[in-house]
Amino acid sequence: MLIEVRENPFDPWQYLAERQAHHGVSACSGATAVFVGTMRDFNEGDTVRDMYLEHYPGMTERHLERLATNVLQQWSLDDVLIVHRIGHITPAQPIVLVAVWSAHRAAAFEACRQLMETLKHSAPFWKRETLADGAVRWVDNNTPG
Amino acid sequence: MLIEVRENPFDPWQYLAERQAHHGVSACSGATAVFVGTMRDFNEGDTVRDMYLEHYPGMTERHLERLATNVLQQWSLDDVLIVHRIGHITPAQPIVLVAVWSAHRAAAFEACRQLMETLKHSAPFWKRETLADGAVRWVDNNTPG
Amino acid sequence: MSVKVLFFASLRERFGVGQVTLALTEPLSVQAVWQRSSGEDSLPANVLMAVNQTYAGADTLVQSGDEVAFFPPVTGG
Amino acid sequence: MSVKVLFFASLRERFGVGQVTLALTEPLSVQAVWQRSSGEDSLPANVLMAVNQTYAGADTLVQSGDEVAFFPPVTGG
């Protein structure tokens, strides 16, 4: 399990290549399911120029660890990875990367999706958007999907 | 949409990086869902030394295109990628890569999973395994998940 | 006036041949193409069929110039 | 004998402060901690609460030395 909350931009594909090199490409993990959430340049009908992502230092990391532990208990998985940006983010930059390695595809797909849904609904992060005209607003609610 | 049936090994993460560079990291695609199927070194209780993947030249490519077209009609997606190995494959090598880009995560997750399920159940590929003792057998059925 | 018949994977190994050409004087069902090309009377329930690279049923009519394929359950991905 | 109280995101901006320290002579509910630290009587339904970095309810008892946090609905991912 690897959880990282980071301020610097990252390339999800390079991150995955390195993570897999780290644990060795396991010849047991037949299935890898990955989700990457990227900052869009629009939200609720407005053009978004950039974003600031606040978190709760300490609780955020602990909470992500709990979510990862939950899926590791619920499915038979080989590895779980969560990477989440904080701080100043611009459109097209990755915000979140979730990856799950398993022997079987159903477990990988389902654990990956559950991780993303529970992260969206419960991990302490808050988005503050800056719109095209310079107006700043806190995002009230995540989109349902 | 990009469909590739290829004989040479490939690195899925590098492939994704290149594909995204090609269509530009769209600032509209908030969600990318990816599945990588990797050759395992076991199947039905036996150690598998290597594998030969046969396909139906022409029909296989057309069928994968049909599956991709189906999900593009069913969900609002920005791009779909399917890469599938054929020929001689050794454990820990990627066999299949499916990636879906969308504005929303539900569409990305669901389209990616449906692509994998329909590919598994209908795309004309056949696996012939060589076991540890040199015995050769055709795989009868895919695992349910 | 002929059709190309293809066998894949374990079927090809069973018949020892991957491709046969069948003379055709009138349209035949896929099932009849199986009987003539394989020499086997009954079409096993788990054999899949395609006509011109699209999945087809045993009753599909095959015309001259068509490509017919028989193969076992698929196991890709 | 005190508790650390944290406000995040829009709540921090509303109160103009991210952290206050509350003197404590006896255990208090999270709701009472909210009233004393924010100066507001009622706890809005959409405010989330954590005690020692774990989600908690309004009735959870807070002891001296605890860390209490209030924040709006989360919007990560």
UniProtKB/TrEMBL annotation, chains A, B:
GO biological process, one term: Mo-molybdopterin cofactor biosynthetic process
UniProt-listed CDD domains: MoaE
Coiled coil: none
Broad enzyme group: transferase
The entry's keywords: Molybdenum cofactor biosynthesis
Annotated pathway: Cofactor biosynthesis; molybdopterin biosynthesis
Keyword Cell cycle tagged: no
EC number assigned by the record: 2.8.1.12
Statement: the UniProt record of this protein carries the keyword Nucleotide-binding: no
GO molecular function, one term: molybdopterin synthase activity
UniProt similarity note: Belongs to the MoaE family.
Complex and partners: Heterotetramer of 2 MoaD subunits and 2 MoaE subunits. Also stable as homodimer. The enzyme changes between these two forms during catalysis.
Protein name listed in UniProt: Molybdopterin synthase catalytic subunit
UniProtKB/TrEMBL annotation, chains C, D:
One GO BP annotation of this record: Mo-molybdopterin cofactor biosynthetic process
Domain of life: Bacteria
SUPFAM superfamilies xref list: MoaD/ThiS
GO cellular component: molybdopterin adenylyltransferase complex
Presence of the UniProt keyword Nucleotide-binding in the record: yes
InterPro entries, sorted: Beta-grasp_dom_sf, MOCS2A, Mopterin_synth/thiamin_S_b, ThiS/MoaD-like
GO molecular function: nucleotide binding
Coiled-coil annotated residue ranges, if any: none
Annotated keywords: Nucleotide-binding
Phosphoprotein found in the keyword field: no
UniProt record similarity statement: Belongs to the MoaD family.
Name of the featured protein: Molybdopterin synthase sulfur carrier subunit
